[in-house]
Amino acid sequence: MPRISTKGKNMPESPIRKLVPYAENAKKRGIEVFHLNIGQPDIKTPAVALEAIKNNTIKVLAYSRSEGSEEYRKKIAEYYAKNNIDVTADEIIVTTGGSEALLFAMGSIADPGDEIIIPEPFYANYNGFSTASGVKIVPVVSKIEDNFALPPISEFEKLITSKTKAILICNPGNPTGYLYSKEEIEKLAIIVKKYDLFLIADEVYREFVYDNVQHQSVLHNFGLENNAIIIDSVSKRYSMCGARIGCLVSKNKDVINTALKFAQARLSPPTFAQIASEAALATPQSYFEEVIVEYKERRDILIEELHKIKGIKAASPKGAFYCVVELPVDNADKFAQWLLEEFNLDNQTVMVAPAAGFYSTQGFGTKQIRIAYVLKKEDLITAVSIIKAGLEQYNKTN
Ligand SMILES: Cc1ncc(COP(=O)(O)O)c(C=O)c1O
Questions:
Q1: Closest-lying ligand 1 atom to the alpha carbon of residue 174
Q2: Residue 191 buriedness (CB in 10 A; 0-12 / 13-18 / 19+)
Q3: Mind listing the pLDDT tens digit for each residue in 142-185?
Q4: Of 113, 185, 201, 212, which one has the fewest beta carbons inside 10 Å?
């Protein structure tokens, strides 16, 4: 029997998707499942993007340039200028989603065995990308009690070794919803410059900030021209997850030239989806205003409803559309599976993402779940009432 690689065996399964078979079985039994587990927004894709595809008269669906089409990159640079991020089209590589941008970033800056420090909990697929790249994630713990704020910079400093290549942050955070302040990015800027590290910032949720707070990009005025790498994506911004378009942005020419070689190896990002993504850049501001109001209301309702449950600890998200919640249960993984396999309230149940998979330290987050507030408000209220009833029954019987 031919053998699978050790790397393949070590690839983690997605904590977001691993309960899918149980959800499918519940649906087969006639139970309605509210999906709070995955960041697939229910928001409509902007009409300009969909029309650009419908009205296209393209005759040959050819490869584009490996770094993405020039017109598209020029327009992305204009988008960044509006967000006070000063980059040119040459400093952008269009990728197949933010996912590929993360792979290119790791591939460009780290050799097998090198280390990247990441505040945990973090976007679970960072585990997969680092395994695929042979990179070791070194976690620094952020705590629900602190609302997942940046851990003290001394904690990062303790973890820096000769193998450390970068610090990776997600801002606003998935799964935490935390939005780093200017002071926090300044602290990170000082440390990455002191130790000559890269600062990779996953800013795919840049627009999703609430409470009139300004998003701080690592390419604002922090003097990080040599150090900063931005990971970006159209997936959430325009509710275009299926387009599979993102980008890697850096003012460091060595990073761009190296990432370009990875981009050349896979030839081209999706051509058709670049057409839609380019058109999406003309989305009127009113679209975002409505979407942000909707998410803010969802967040407020979710938190209000969660606080009605005894023994629960919920973070207060300031951005993105996720919330980490600590439950009064022995094990959130078991509870999440139980909700799908054994529980329903009036023929309805919920699917949540157990949060342990968002940590890389064994044993952390075992009582926590991540809720994605990507459902309409009425459904969120129902979903939380199901969790509440589920907790009461689970703790009686388990
Ligand atoms: C924080 C974060 N980064 C990157 C991605 C990758 O997104 P995509 O590959 O769809 O652009 C996601 C998707 O959920 C995410 O939440």
A1: 1
A2: middle
A3: 999 999 999 999 999 999 999 999 999 999 999 999 999 999 99
A4: 212
Averaged over 240-244, what is the pLDDT?
96
CA of 204 to the centre of ligand 1 (A): 7
Whether the CB-CB separation of 149 and 178 falls below 8 Å is answered with yes
- The Cβ of residue 35 has, within 10 Å, a number of other Cβ atoms equal to 18
Pocket test residue of 17, 38, 233 for ligand 1, highest count of atoms within 8 A of CB: 233
Which H or E run includes 34?
strand 32-35
Please tell me the total number of residues recorded for the chain in this structure.
Answer: 398
Structure-token pair, residue 230: 């931005």
- Does the pTM surpass 0.90? The reply is yes
Cis check for the bond before 121: say yes or no (omega within 30 of 0).
yes
Q: Which residues form ligand 1's pocket by a CB distance below 6 Å?
A: 39, 97-99, 123, 170, 174, 202, 204, 233, 235, 241, 246
Q: Which tokens go with 295?
A: 């998410």
User: Rounded to an integer, what distance in angstroms lies between the CA atom of residue 328 and that of residue 332?
Assistant: 9
Query: Which residue in this structure is represented by tokens 């803010």?
Result: 296
Residue 103 DSSP SS3: helix
